[in-house]
Amino acid sequence: MVERNHSVFETLTTSAHGNEGIQRDELETTLLHDDAYTHVISARKWKRLLDRADEDRDRFITFPEFKNMYEKFGLSQAERTAMKRFLGAALVNIVPRAWRTDFLRNYNCRPPPFFMPVVSLLEVGVFIYYAILLGRGGRPVTAFEGLPNPNVLMYVPTRRYEAWRYITYMLVHQGYIHLLFNLCFQLFLGLPLEIVHKWWRVALVYVGGVVGGSLAHSVTDISVNLAGASGGCYAIIGAHIASVILNWKEMNFKCSAKDPVRLLTSAYVRLTLLVLLIGADAVNAVYRRFYEPDNFKVGITAHIGGFLTGLLLGVIVLKNVNILSWERRIGWAALAIWLAAILVCILINGLRTGYPETDFTSIYSQF
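User: That's the sequence. What structure does it adopt?
Assistant: Structure tokens below.
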């Protein structure tokens, strides 16, 4: 079937098609000379569909126009099946080849990065607010201290009924070193990801990592508070690895030691740097979790939960420059695994015994 689809476009692949799409007449000629489609959809109906698809009357059919023709115009089930096969082949030819083979061509600032800068500013703003609050009480903010306990944002095992804490803990940090490390992770790793994959995809992965991190922490370290954006940051790392896996061939397009930019942005270099980064931070996290005083402990499972979330959601959410059928199947399987894990953690939170006694006292008048 794949070979048949590509034979339909044999004449089209010999010419370059830019963002304007395929000439309407060229597409019609190719369609009407292949009985794999005309025996299902008549030549007359094809012409009528193409006329309606060319909404701007520029005599070119772009991929969005062709997709609208499939989705919006009245077709029988057999016609939709034939159109769906044709749609996959059309994508290969309407999207410029360089954009499918060269990952670097997907870097642009349209729209500019939005989510990572906004989240970072929110975290800085909350940190400054609590620093001022503590300063008035005679408690200076230090490298590893600077968060009132209790407060309305951090995850606290005794107040698990306040569901927002599973997300808002990302806004508070224990000292300025904690904040700076997470800001560096977010901006240096999150911004490039957002430039390629756009803000809403990165937002889904980041917030999913925050939730996955807090839920993983809540079912393992059942008596330990949680603060900081590490779950979201590690989701960004996991998403980078997912992006490398999905776009391995495209990231290595024209990779050569003679071109330092392409070499440094290749999949090999990216994967190596990510593994080194994870290894170094993991050693630090393990040490702080087991050997530091309680005030400085780090929630290791929040890191793990965030990372696995980024890896699983990244496969289905992030942009794949050249989508293969097996990658799509793996993406849906990854989403199902993540949702199942989230559901299990929620059930454990609701049904498990042994958590610290619930605290129903009011703290909102204080902070």
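The radius of gyration is 26 Å.
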